[in-house]
Amino acid sequence: EEIWSGLADTDQESFSYVGYSELDTIEGLKDQDRFHKTVESLALVGVTGEKKLILFRAIAIVLQLGNLVLEPDPEDEDARAVISSREELKDLAEIMGVESEMLEAAFLIRTMRARNEEFKVPLNVTQAKDSCDAFAKEIYAKAFLWLVRCINDATCAENNYQGTPVSSNFGTIGLLDIFGFESFETNRFEQLCINYANEKLQQKFTQDIFSSVQNEYEAEGIELGEIRYDDNTDVLDLVEGRSG
To answer: Using alpha carbons only, what angle is made at residue 47 by residues 53 and 176, rounded to the nearest 5 degrees?
Structure first.
């Protein structure tokens, strides 16, 4: 079972998206040890054989996309982008099973349609790099969602015990995963949306746990000392208010 011959003699420093790290051991296990554990865990949820190879090849495609080097064409006055790393492009085409020329055109040219006409617009380096990164992100996202579906199918009681006498008595376990606050050296619109969602969740929590309970006690005439808690209304007003 071979994921891709191009992975031979490579490590994390071989791929730009991963980069260099001085840390190669976490909790006593190296990356190769964790890889074997990952393979064993995937087998538990039915990801074996061809399924496993497809998943790993998708990840290899993502890694290889990050290795494409884009530069401005020195012979073009508009500085259209060209892929200077020809071997990296060839390797990417090999693992994807497509022609190099097809990939190159997809990354370097935008096709626009107006009425019944079609235009080919060359991209500059920044635009072409964004195109490659967006493609890598989309592949990774779809691979992640596919893996989640595999786990759900493997752990679904209805799928595994359908037709048994107790199949109608299965309960459910609900998992809620919420965003964590983000603060980077450079924060963008994505961080604003994530942190805004967190502030709304925090407000909902304080209202349900503190404010509503306190109001209920007061309505029933039950003495309750004042409960002090942080109110983030002023933070939300920055976004939701008239000046937001």
So the answer is: 120
Query: Which amino acid makes up residue 16?
Result: S
| 161 CB neighbour count, 10 Å cutoff | 12
Spatial CB neighbours of 65, under 8 Å, sequence gap ≥ 6:
17, 92, 132, 133, 135, 136, 139
Q: What CATH class has 5-173?
A: mainly alpha
How does pLDDT run along the chain (244 residues), one tens digit per residue?
577 776 777 777 788 888 777 777 777 878 778 888 899 999 998 999 999 999 999 999 999 999 999 999 888 777 889 999 999 999 899 889 899 999 999 999 888 888 788 888 888 999 999 999 999 999 999 999 999 999 988 887 766 666 655 555 666 677 777 778 888 888 888 888 889 998 898 888 888 887 778 788 888 888 877 777 778 888 888 888 776 5
The dihedral over CA atoms of 214, 179, 151, 159, expressed in degrees to the nearest 10, equals: 40
Taking the C-alpha atoms of residue 74 and residue 81, their distance in angstroms, rounded to an integer, is 9
Bridge partners (DSSP) of residue 120 are 111
What is the Cα–Cα distance from 164 to 243, expressed in whole angstroms?
60
The two structure tokens encoding residue 158: 């209805």
CATH 1.20.120.720 in the chain, residue ranges: 5-173
